[in-house]
Amino acid sequence: MNPLTVAATSPTRHKAESVATRGATQSPQSGIGWSPEIMAATKYKPYDYGHSRPMRAKLPPESVMNGQWYDGKEIEKTVSVIAYHKGEFKEPVKVRLFVGRSRSATTVYCTIWTHGRDGKSFNGHGQAGGYGYHKGSAALAEAIRNAGIELDMSISGVGESAMERAVTAIARALGYRKTTIINS
To answer: Cα 18 from chain centroid?
Structure first.
């Protein structure tokens, strides 16, 4: 089978473009295969559909307050992480996805609100439009970046399970271990 060249670069902050276009091949069983060169050179790894390892999140040293409430938009979905800590239930991570009220609205807006055990908060907003990919996870990926949080793999455009793994990773980075996710 002919090798398929894959550009696995981050849209921000990386100089891995020259290395990232070498060594990727595709097989019918495994999808896109990533060479060790690509894995070492890129910050954002391809999404792990097999869930072979937990996703990890890195928080900024100081609080980030970039959250935004979208007036005039309808809440399409809410994802909440509920944690049990020291005999109490907490909500360390809350994500809201919004859409316009028009029937032809194609942009998804997202806001993420996080609250750590140490009192720090990391809040951000993002949006994604167009067609042909999962806009909710793309908007969440932008909101997470806007909040200053770094994930070790990209969730942009991948889907619901990636969103759930990302918010769980953020809750773990905030110091919460016993968590569950509520989608509404």
So the answer is: 25
